[in-house]
Amino acid sequence: MTETETPVPIVDFRLFLNGDKAEKETVARQIDEAFRDVGFVYLKNHGVAQDMVEQCFEWSKTFFALPLPTKLLAPHPPGGSHHRGYSSPGLENVTQHTYDEAELSTLRKTTPDFKESFESGNTTDASQPNIWPPDTALPGFRTFMEAFFPHCATLIHHLLSALSVALGVPDLAPTHAQSLFQLRLLHYPPIAVEQLREGRKRINAHSDFGTLTLLWQDGVGGLEIQDPREEGRWREVRPLEGGVLVNVGDLLERWSNGRWRSTVHRVGLPPAKGVREEREGGKGNGGEGEKVVGDRYSIPFFATADPETVIEALPGCWVEGREETKRFEKVTAEGYVRMRMAALYE
Ligand SMILES: O=C(O)CCC(=O)C(=O)O
Ligand SMILES: [Fe+2]
Predict the structure, then answer these.
(1) Ligand 1 centroid distance, CA of 300 (Å)
(2) Ligand in nearest proximity to the CA of 298
(3) What's the domain range around 126?
(4) pTM value?
């Protein structure tokens, strides 16, 4: 697939990082357009060293390859309010705006996500302290994750500055000054193609609930986004070597009064090259000769505004003086995120 065929526009961020005022404005406008149109953008030359990204994937592979009892030395606490540590397959189940307990419980049993994850956050985040495996279990893992985090946080701050330029509002980066963000390592184990064909997903359809998400992906593919113009149609988003995918979350959709879209996405069957024939005994739960989709690794980095930030239509996103043009109720960043997280875990 050539660059122009992807449903997600590709923007060269170098001109925002190093350009003059006019060049910054051009990049800001391109991101604004992408967010208005599909809610996703691919950035090239985003300023995060490729070497760091590659190392992060290596650490992720090494971590998930550990025996389960070792991974469970850093267990994700029960409930959705402390989102740190290791979640084994099936523990987290993503849903889209379902809050009823009985319904959630049924969904967890009938449509589990096929993934395991490890979450860490800012070392300064007192409300959600990090949960690391003992250093002896995986020496260097914690040090690396703590070092990678600020690289991603810096890119988030630059993106917020670009969005402020697009709207002509004061810099939004200070609203995220505490960087209470979340770095997530995700591993989708091999799975039989048949299971994904039957409608199961590696991660179910959802929108992200913070402001911005960076998504680093390996080359396997399988990410799909809902077509903004054709409800019910899914569009494949192929990985872009050296690029980072950025998407709008619900909080930013609310903040922009719907100008920027928080697009629903999911991970399913990748294009044919990610599928292989299992010869001996089928890791994907089926038998010999079944078609299996190999491992997939991705690294989302979720940003949200500082907890007390009041999220209501930004200037330029509503008709000044006409309150009725505001589409969403005022919320605090913290209030909204807590409500969404509580639905993730039993
Ligand atoms: O693995 C992916 O590519 C997507 C992950 C995702 O959407 C999420 O964790 O919110
Ligand atoms: Fe997501």
Answers:
(1) 6
(2) 1
(3) 10-281+289-342
(4) 0.90
